[in-house]
């Protein structure tokens, strides 16, 4: 590809991605499953250590399951905000205005739960070692966030701690660890986001 075209594409992608923000207030209208499926295929095309693709995605649109996830997550969040969280962590969260209430888990039409597959299993149930599972799943989640955003959907990366309740609720096996939830949908009409600063190029990069 010629330099001119290559630079134009890099700039177009940067400016499209610059409009992405984490959204915490969603419009309840349903989103087309075909679009979510395409975004998941994009995630599935991301690189992974030894091509082991150590991830699994669970798409939740069922209101009853969303409610159960919200109830379980808020139980963890109350413990976090009221007792467990160190003061420094609460101070880091303060500009975001977050708290133990997570209505977006029910308001958003779609929750995509990303699982990291820590190891594989052969036909006899013996463990198959997987490599770089965290890095690989993180990269796939990044692909997914970019795909959702460029499709016109908003999302929030949400990580209640601990998240092990998701294995039980979603019936996932012990070799998979919940990695994050992507709360997905159209933003609410009155959705607002905190005024955050991103690093400048000098802070972000060293050129040698
Ligand atoms: C790994 C990870 C975990 C996050 N967990 C939460 C979370 O549990 N709750 C939340 O409200 N936001 C969460 N976020 C969103 C961040 O707060 C958000 O990305 C950050 O403030 C920057 O804002 P922006 O995404 O709008 O650029 C998480 C983001 C990442 C990447």
Q: Overview of this structure, please?
A:
This protein has one domain (23-188): NADH Oxidase, CATH 3.40.109. Helix content is 43%, strand content 17%. The protein is built from 8 helices and 6 strands, in the order ααβαααβββαβαβα. The strands form 2 sheets. A 4-stranded antiparallel beta sheet has the order 1-2-6-5. The radius of gyration is 19 Å and the shape is globular. The two termini are 25 Å apart. The site of flavin mononucleotide (FMN) has 12 residues, from strand 5.
List keywords for this structure.
two-stranded antiparallel sheet; 6 strands; alpha+beta; 208 residues; 43% helix; 4-stranded antiparallel sheet; 8 helices
Describe what is shown at a glance.
It contains eight helices and six strands; from the N terminus they run H-H-E-H-H-H-E-E-E-H-E-H-E-H.
